[in-house]
Amino acid sequence: MDKIAYFVQKSNTNATAVAIFGAIGAVVVAAKALSFLKVLVDVFLRSGINVKKYDAGNGGWAVITGASDGIGKEFAFQLASKKLNIVLVSRTESKLKVLAEELEQKYNIETKVHAMDFAKGDDKDYQALQALVAPINVTVLVNNVGTNHEIPTPFEQETDKIVKDIVEININAAMKVTKIIVPHMVARKKGLIINLGSFAGLVPTPYLSVYSGSKAFLSSWSQAIGAELAPKGITVQNVNTYFVVSAMSKIRRATMLIPMPKPYVRSVLGQIGISGGASTPYTSTPFYSHAIANWLIDNTFGRAFWVKQNYNIQVDIRKRALRKREREAAAAAKSQ
């Protein structure tokens, strides 16, 4: 009889344990489902802060770095269409002047241009930019300028120049330009800072180690200054970006996961202050397919898995890039 009672008690205990773990599992699944539902609501239903808040149509100015091509150029068009005046900052003055003239004629706004090579890190260039923006009401800053490795490369084989350029352009330029602009925003208790981040900063990317590290810095720095500046009326948003068709990405054809600059920038400006797929503070992943990918990275398999995936992808890209270089070198030698 005692044995029967023991087995009954043990069976009840096991059933209770199964019920408890089942309940915990159900709660975890429900929480995951709700978090995914929030992502869908964010990217498909919610609207972010209206750009009019930043004096669009009322004398406000946007400063855009890396403005002559790609995503930066698209930011210039879309912010100008919202009646913000535009300061275009990039390396090639002739491109900037052509773009400035087009923006003024199309949208009836004012523009200023400042040509500088961010890779040089020349203090005189930054001083000239500071003087240029001193008399105007800068309410929006888009830190878009960036550079990457030419091809995926092991860190010990990368050239000193490429390492230096990535650090100077992706890290130092963002800090220096922001340091110039922020006092204007603090004085008016109004401002928006958009930093163009990357999935490479979300998940470390072997063979793009310096670029990946620079974007991880941008993410962490954006969170820190975002917390500092929020009480002063300034919104900081690190935009977590997967691939976009551009010269830097070297991708020419759009897909569901890789948009053209126009719809991508539209999603960024349409969801200011909304996290989208991002779980990191002061961060947004606004484009719908990027948001879903971001959620999957945060909620499935673990980071070790995703780092390994990045490793395999970059190894394959490197092999193909090296074969292409060999073919080009052989063709060049044959033509001589």
From TrEMBL:
Q: Which Pfam families match?
A: adh_short
Tell me the protein family, please. Answer: Belongs to the short-chain dehydrogenases/reductases (SDR) family.
What does the UniProt entry say about where the protein is found? Endoplasmic reticulum membrane
Query: Where is it chiefly localized?
Result: endoplasmic reticulum
Per its record, how is this protein called by name?
Very-long-chain 3-oxoacyl-CoA reductase
* GO cellular component: a single term: endoplasmic reticulum membrane
What is the scientific name of the source organism?
Linnemannia elongata AG-77
Write out the catalysed reaction: a very-long-chain (3R)-3-hydroxyacyl-CoA + NADP(+) = a very-long-chain 3-oxoacyl-CoA + NADPH + H(+)
Example GO biological process term? fatty acid elongation
